[in-house]
Amino acid sequence: MATSNAGGNALPVTGYIGEEAPPPTTAAKPSRGGWTTAPFILATVAGLTLAAGGWLNNLIVFLIQQFNIKSIDAAQVSNVVSGATNFFPIIAAVLADSFLGCFTIIWISSLISLLGLILLVLTVTIHGLKPTNCTGATTTCDTPSATQYAVLFTALSLVSIGLGGSRFTLATMGANQFTKLGHQSTYFNWYFFALYFSSFISATGIVYVQDNVSWAWGFGICIAGNVAGLALFLAGKRYYYCQDKIQGSPFTSLLRVVVASFRKRKLNISSDQGAECYYNGDDGVKGGITAAAPPTNSFRVLNRAALKTEEDIEPARSSPWKLCTVQQVEDLKTLIKILPLWSTSIILATPIGIQISLTVLQALATDRHVAGSGFQIPAGSIFVFSLISTALCTSLANHTLWPLWRKLTAGRRRRDNIPLPTPLQQIGIGHVFNIASMAVSALVESKRRGGGPRHVMSVLWLIPQMVIVGIGEGFHFPGQVALYYQEFPESLKSFSTAMVALLIAVAFYLSTAVIDFVRRVTVWLPDDINQGRLDYVYWVMVVLGVFNFGYYLVCSCLYKYKNVGVVEEDESS
Question: What is the domain range of residue 316?
Answer without folding.
Answer: 250-329
